[in-house]
Write a structure and sequence with these properties.
The protein is mostly beta strands and 146 residues long. It has one helix and nine strands; from the N terminus they run ββββββαβββ. A seven-stranded antiparallel beta sheet has the order 2-1-7-8-9-6-3, with helices on one face. Strands 4-5 form a two-stranded antiparallel sheet. It is globular, with a radius of gyration of 18 Å. The two termini are 24 Å apart.
């Protein structure tokens, strides 16, 4: 039997210079997937004039999408990180370099490094039934270690 329980997962984001001590996310939302890693295409291919398969690889970043409960301490910290890295007129933008550590309930950890926050939710939305919406964030990383 396989136990696939995700309860107890922790995501810690270290961002230099904004949050060098890290933001630990433990309040994972129920309305959206709290953690997702889309499939990465490792290779491109084509066929030559005679039908021979030609395969080539190139480096691709690892994208991690995650959500937070609106109004939680983690959510507020990620909004600070988002605003610190957002580019705008007459605003200084930091270039935080991010390391993310995902610790699963079985104590297995994944470390993603040399990353950047590339997508976030600027303001908290509201659902049709009157709740605050969970906010979604995305980072891309250059390297992964387990």
């Amino acid at each position: 039997m396989q136990n696939v329980t995700a309860t107890g997962t922790r995501i810690t984001i270290y961002s230099i210079p904004t949050f060098p001590n890290g933001i630990t996310i433990t309040t994972l939302p129920a309305g959206t997937d709290p953690l997702d890693c889309p499939a990465v295409q490792l290779a491109e291919w084509q066929t030559g004039a005679n039908g021979d398969l030609i395969l080539y690889k190139h480096p691709v970043p690892i994208e991690i999408n995650f959500s937070t409960v609106a109004g939680s301490e983690e959510d507020k910290s990620l909004e600070i990180l988002f605003d610190a890295n957002r580019v705008a007129k007459n605003k200084i933008s930091y270039n935080d370099v991010i390391t993310m550590v995902i610790q699963y309930p079985d104590n297995h950890s994944v470390v993603l490094s040399n990353g950047f926050l590339v997508r976030g939710t600027a303001v908290v939305g509201i659902t049709g039934d009157g709740k605050l919406k969970e906010r979604q964030w995305s980072c891309v990383f250059e390297a992964k270690a387990a």
